Amino acid sequence: MQTPVLQDTMAAVAAVDLTKVYGSGDTAVRALDGVTVGFARAQFTAIMGPSGSGKSTLMHCLAGLDTATSGQALLGGTDLTKQSDKVLTKVRRERIGFVFQAFNLLPQLTAAQNITLPLELAGRKPDHHLYAHLTETLGIVSRLDHRPGELSGGQQQRVALARALVSRPEVVFADEPTGNLDSRSGAEVLLFLRNSVRELGQTIVMVTHDPGAAAYADRVVLLADGRVAGEIDRPDTASVTDALQGLAAAR
Ligand SMILES: Nc1ncnc2c1ncn2[C@@H]1O[C@H](COP(=O)(O)OP(=O)(O)OP(=O)(O)O)[C@@H](O)[C@H]1O
């Protein structure tokens, strides 16, 4: 049965009363304290909040990279909190795309091999039209035979973007995807993410500290102390900066 948060928002991904406690006793940290939030299909959502507010923990629980203490982490109809490690590995490989701050490409493989590796591990063939579209749009066609060590940071992140999207995942989770890039490369990455929502109907959830990056999203979800502290529809840099300053002042 679908939960209300999924029905209401047509969410691709949702947290329902999600809690995560690290450690126990006096040293326990309540990183998530009852988070209920949906991430709509074909929308670009940024998660923001002060350091330690639970952004990474929320993303990791929703991506099946970490186990919640209680509540539900829903990907489509699947509650990830109820799955075995084996199933979670399959879900991450087949249904989710990841983009990390540190690119996380395999150094011994070419760019082309990095892009298609997750599909091959899942026993699937790449969609050649989508592969061509992504590599052309990202401007990496001439770099496909190169290894990551022969590519700039911006080029490596564009390879990581192609890898994340080529399997048509239900959601792409991006963790500070522009954190290691200069402003021009960062803007290219963000523009590509925004366009992939418009053109491919991709669902994207991005954690970022940068109000300028969040302004590329359709919506910002704000966290503070492990709880949802607000949201902004159609954010711009000023509205996001104001909201973050408000959260910092309330502490
Ligand atoms: N493995 C862990 N063991 C213990 N505590 C942890 C662990 N991971 C995170 N925490 C704690 O949980 C809380 C939330 O951390 P989290 O990394 O999710 O916050 P964040 O908003 O992503 O922070 P930042 O913006 O600094 O990356 C913090 O108090 C953090 O110290």
Automatic annotation (TrEMBL):
The entry's keywords: ATP-binding, Nucleotide-binding, Transport
Entry GO terms, CC: membrane protein complex; plasma membrane
GO molecular function, one term: transmembrane transporter activity
Stored InterPro entries: AAA+_ATPase, ABC_transporter-like_ATP-bd, ABC_transporter-like_CS, ABC_transpr_LolD-like, MacB-like_ATP-bd, P-loop_NTPase
Keyword flag Transport: yes
Top-rank taxon, per record: Bacteria
UniProt entry tagged with the keyword ATP-binding: yes
Domain ABC transporter: 13-250
Protein name (database record): Putative ABC transport system ATP-binding protein
Organism the protein comes from: Paractinoplanes atraurantiacus
